[in-house]
Structures are given as C-alpha cells and as structure tokens.
Amino acid sequence: MVALGLVVRGGSTPVDDWFQHGSSVPGRLLFFTDYRTMLLAVAVALGFALYRQRWTLAAVVAVTPVAAVWLSRLCKQLFGRQKEGTVAYPSGHTTVMVTVLGMLILVLGARLWVVLAATVWALLGMVGQAVTYHYFTDTVGALLLGSSVVCIAAAVVHRARHGSFTESSPRR
User: Fold this and answer.
1) Is 2 among the domain residues?
2) What backbone torsions phi and psi does residue 82 show, to the nearest 5 degrees?
3) Calpha distance 23→113 (Å, rounded)
4) Does 103 reside within a domain?
5) Does residue 90 have a cis peptide bond before it, meaning omega lies within 30 degrees of 0?
6) Which of 82, 109, 134, 159 is the most exposed place for a label (fewest CB within 10 A)?
7) Domain count, the chain
8) Residue 109: which domain range?
9) Which residues contact 143 (CB under 8 A, 6 or more apart)?
10) Element (H or E) spanning 163, and its range?
C-alpha cells in the first residue's frame, strides 16, 4: 500500500484514466460502498458475534471499521494525492467496505461461498468508486489497507481464542 501510494501520489495513471472514462451505469455500484449498506452489514456481523457469545469477536467487529476509517484518513494526509481538490489515496469508502466484508468473513467463517461473495462485492464496490469519486489505484490501495486491518483483527481474535498466535506443542 505504501509503495503504491508513493508511486501514484503525483496524479492519475493510464489505468486510472481508463476507469474515469466509464459510463454512468457503474456509478450505481456505489451501493456496495454506501455507508448505509456498510452500517447494515456491520450490524449483521455484530449481531451474529453477540448471538454466538463471542465477546472478543464482537468488540473487534465494532472497533475495526472505525480504526480503518482513522487509518485511511491518516494515510490520505501522508500521501496527499488529490482528485478534484480532495485527498483521495486510499479510498476511505473502499477501506471500510473491505474491512466490513472481512468482519463478515470472520464472523461467518471463511467458507468458500462467503469468500467468493465478499470478493465479488468488493470488486463491484471498487469499480463503483473508480468510475466516480476515486482513481482505480485509490481503491487498490484501500483494498491493501483494509486487508491489512482485517489481518490484524483476525490475529487479535485468534490470540484471544487460543492464547497465542501459533500452536505450540505441550511441554513435557
């Protein structure tokens, strides 16, 4: 994410330009990153975690998207990439979407259908942002940032459940 941010901080790339010439139809894909959609999705994930009495998981589900927003805003200031006078890299909407999808995967389990559905959802959301408010590379940076945040959240949940990050053999 950092390397991409350093490369693209100066402006648009040819890939970004290609996405910017998209039609208005993909703009409707903003549904996938809309804050109301994300609030509903995180509420579902939180509800499942609470129903299963997975208290650490519930706390992680509640805190992680907020942390992702904060990190995205921090990164925007660090990289300073502008689009139409507004800092753009990485996309905050995409970062939150990826993070919330990651929380759903943590709660529901990494079943093939869950991961495939989340992948399709994320790609549609990225395209929606790439043809409207952001450059495509902003959404790729957000995908990387959001994935990193989800990995940290998964490690916290794993550690809370198993007591360590690695399985160790019993002492003799």
Assistant:
1) no
2) -110, 145
3) 30
4) yes
5) yes
6) 109
7) 1
8) 25-162
9) 94, 98, 122, 126
10) none
pLDDT of residue 101: 97
Show the tokens assigned to 74: 């921090």
Using CA atoms, how far apart are residues 56 and 76, in angstroms rounded to an integer?
30
- Percent of the chain, pLDDT > 70? 91
Q: For the chain, how many residues are written?
A: 172
> Measured on CA atoms in the order 156, 129, 16, 22, is the torsion positive or negative?
positive
Number of other residues whose CB lies within 10 A of the CB of residue 136:
23
User: Is pLDDT above 60 for 171?
Assistant: no
Q: Is residue 149 part of a domain?
A: yes
For residue 105, which of 79, 113, 31 has the smallest C-alpha distance? 113
pLDDT in tens, 137-169: 999 999 999 999 999 999 999 888 877 655 554
Structure tokens at 15: 């890939």
In a domain, 106, yes or no: yes
Average pLDDT rounded to a whole number, residues 99-112: 94
- The CA–CA distances, whole Å, from 165 to 55, 71, 76, 98, 156 equal 19, 24, 31, 23, 9
User: What local confidence, expressed as pLDDT, does residue 164 receive?
Assistant: 62
pLDDT value at position 96? Answer: 97
